[in-house]
Amino acid sequence: VVFSGGEVSGDVSQGAEMSMTQHSRSSHVEMTIGSFSKGRAILVDENMRTCVLPLHILPLDAEVGSIVEVSVKLNKRKQLQKMATLKKSIEEIEKYTSSCMDGVRESRSSILIPESKSKEEIGPDKNDDDFVSQNAVLGKGTMNNTK
User: Fold this and answer.
1) Fewer C-beta neighbours within 10 Å, C or N terminus of the chain?
2) Alpha-carbon span 18 to 9, nearest angstrom
3) From start to end residue, where is composition biased (Polar residues) (predicted)?
């Protein structure tokens, strides 16, 4: 069953407006008639979103389980709220990622041995002037240091 009638709005979850006219910001969704209640048809889509339409809009042969193609247009206010929420979420993710990267940089720099501790804990550097002169005095090296 495909609608081809005029404008219709119903009670719809998540701020969507159901209409049967083609809009530039709308998309077609296939919905299944789930049940009838108090002169209305309750439609359900594959994401379990629902809408309610008056029975007089449906074809006479419509029954539970029939598939109906409906044009869905998001309410502008709800659409802007969703965009703002997404933007905020993206900013929070970027902020968190940035703080994680700062932590990684700090941990890498703390792994490096500071210069003041290197001689005490590891021992003298063989290219160090003090090491060469001490060994020369003790007769372990040569005095050819031209630094």
Assistant:
1) C
2) 5
3) 132-147
